[in-house]
Amino acid sequence: MNIDEKYLFRCIELGKIGLGTTAPNPMVGSVIVYNDKIIGEGYTSPFGGPHAEVNAINSVKHKELLAKATLYVTLEPCSHYGKTPPCADLIIKSGIPSVVIGILDPHEKVAGKGIQKLKDAGINVISNVLAEECAAHHKRFLTFIEKKRPYVILKWAETIDGFIAPSDRIRSTKPEPYWITNTYSRQLVHKWRSEEQAILVGANTVLADNPSLTVRDWEGQNPIRVVLDKDLSLPKTSAVFNTDAKVIVLTSKTEASTLEHLVYEKIDFNKDLTENILSVLYKNNINSVIVEGGSKTINAFILNGLWDEARIFTGETTFKTGVPAPKITGRLAFSQKIGSDTLNMLTND
Q1: Which of 5, 13, 41, 53 is catalytic?
Q2: Sorting pLDDT into bands at 50, 70 and 90, what band is 179?
Q3: Which co-factor is required (predicted)?
Q4: Structural Rg of the chain based on CA atoms
């Protein structure tokens, strides 16, 4: 590992702190180094706040050192006015002579313009350092910009005999939550919810489980809840419609909402459903979504290959009969035992 890679790794570590708060902005990390010592660090503030480079520069105690320092950043500094001024302008104004960048920003408003602005100001710029690692770190942002859709995470729990829910007959005789996984796995799911912008379920899941789809067993903000309800048949008393978080209802009906937290989006259920869903989420500036169910919804994404990660729990529970677990093929990226449960994470490479 060379010196530039060492500090870019630290930038990635810092950027991860912003997971779940910066979206739809990328979670950038930045450090400032003088004489092989970090003199400033920063990561992207919650959406609307200062970017990583600004926070790093502002954290430097002795500003005179900036004229001899190197700024490291995971993503090309922006060169345009958005909710904040261009980071490239502040870097130039600060007199920093060298900048090392992980990857270029593919956004049309940046796309090399930030680097060019720095070079035009006489700054020495090195780019594509730890490019693979920085791209993996910025997977949500890059998917949103390059594929015009959110980063899609499929999540389900299945029994050891291959079911994700008991049969209707069992539910009718014993109408209660049927937990497949243990409390530690369920807490991890709440952590994941706090990290992504949205969570998606179908109407059948709402009817069967009445989920809130909020973050309760972890600290963090609630995701936007996206509900498929073709005929607007779900009871308005369903927990998913409470005011704890924003709700987007995807329906075939034309409907207007009088509630601030509730939005209706009309889609054509006779056309490709997954592409319709992702198009609406993209329009709503959502760059990541967890698809939690049910089986029909998850299988639609699998069938069309419109997924990036699958996070699959297997518990020691057995149902003997019920709703079969989805069948999926992907690269096993990670496997872990969580108490009695097994978590496998696949990527759609």
Answers
A1: 53
A2: confident
A3: Zn(2+)
A4: 23
As beta bridge partners, residue 149 has none
Does 53 qualify as catalytic in the annotation? yes
Q: Which CATH superfamily is domain 148-347 in?
A: Dihydrofolate Reductase, subunit A (3.40.430.10)
Extents of the domains making up the chain: 3-143, 148-347
Q: Binding site for Zn(2+): residue ranges? A: 51, 78, 87
Residues annotated within a binding site: 51, 78, 87, 157, 179, 193, 205, 209, 213, 216, 292, 294-300
**Residue ranges of the binding site for substrate:** 193, 213, 216, 292
Q: Note whether 276 and 267 are within 8 A (CB).
A: yes
pLDDT in tens, 264-301: 999 999 888 999 999 999 999 999 999 998 899 999 99
Residue ranges in 68-148 assigned as alpha helix (H): 87-94, 113-120, 131-137, 139-147
Domains 3-143 and 148-347 share a fold: no
Calculate what percentage of the chain has a pLDDT beyond 90. 80
pLDDT of 81-96, one tens digit each?
666 678 899 999 999 9
Q: What is 3-143's CATH topology?
A: Cytidine Deaminase; domain 2 (3.40.140)
